[in-house]
Specification:
- The complex is a heterodimer of chains A (145) and B (62).
- With 145 residues, chain A is an all-alpha fold.
- In chain A, 81% of the residues lie in helices and 0% in strands.
- Chain A has 5 helices and no strands.
- In chain A, α2 runs antiparallel to α3, α2 runs antiparallel to α5 and α3 runs antiparallel to α4.
- Chain A is elongated and about 55 Å long.
- Chain B has 62 residues and is mainly alpha-helical.
- The interface between A and B is large, with 41 and 37 residues.
Chain lengths: 145, 62
């Protein structure tokens, strides 16, 4: 019984790894995006608690974070449902990503008044990282990577 | 892939923990499956949304 289970296990390990390289790249970037959003909003909430950033600016960034996370959830659901990236999937993922890429770009170009220079730099870097990961996903989806 | 995951799910029902064991082995091996990455991302996105919504609810616009 144990030998049979072991055989199935050994058989399944390579099978689980069989997938489209593009999907793997998208999944990796989505994971990085999720973690970047988590760090960004924790940094901003912390800065707000210390009165280093205004309520309005905190609200702007957190609203963006919600938008990115919701799009991320839609993108993970879409990616989960496919085995290889086809034209219809590319269209669907582009439709999910395009609005948030624009929103992140808008926030990145806005001056968020953070009185502490180190926190300001951290927030700026995290927003730029977010922009980079989303653009990386978009590049794979568009067939350029 | 789909079939493999379906089998993993069946196995997991029969012998709980085997699917997570497979994912753990893949992680230790340095090759994390797409599904594992998506699960991780999904959970993080859900947690992010909750945290942001909680803050917004506690700090209503005046």
């Amino acid at each position: 019984m144990l030998r049979r289970k072991l055989f199935v296990f050994v058989l399944l390990v390579p099978l689980v790894g069989c997938t489209d390289a593009n999907l793997k790249k998208i999944a990796q970037e989505l994971d990085v995006t999720a973690k970047t959003v988590a760090t960004l909003q924790t940094t901003v909430i912390d800065a707000n608690t210390k009165k280093l950033i205004s309520e309005a600016d905190t609200r702007t960034i957190l609203t963006l974070c919600i938008q990115v996370s919701q799009a991320g959830q839609q993108a993970t659901a879409a990616t989960r449902a496919i085995n290889a990236l086809g034209p219809a999937d590319r269209t669907q993922l582009t439709a999910i990503l395009a609005p948030v890429i624009t929103s992140v770009g808008n926030v990145a170009s806005q001056t968020i008044a953070i009185s502490n220079p180190q926190t300001a730099e951290t927030v700026k870097t995290l927003v730029l990282t977010l922009q980079t990961t989303l653009n990386s996903i978009n590049l794979v989806v568009a067939g350029g990577a | 892939m789909e079939t493999a995951l379906a089998i993993v799910q069946l196995l997991n029902t029969a012998a709980p923990g085997i699917a997570s064991l497979i994912l753990m082995v893949k992680r230790t091996n340095g090759t994390v499956s797409v599904i594992a990455l998506l699960d991780e991302a999904d959970a993080q996105f859900a947690s992010n949304i909750q945290q942001a919504k909680d803050w917004l609810a506690a700090h209503p616009k005046v």
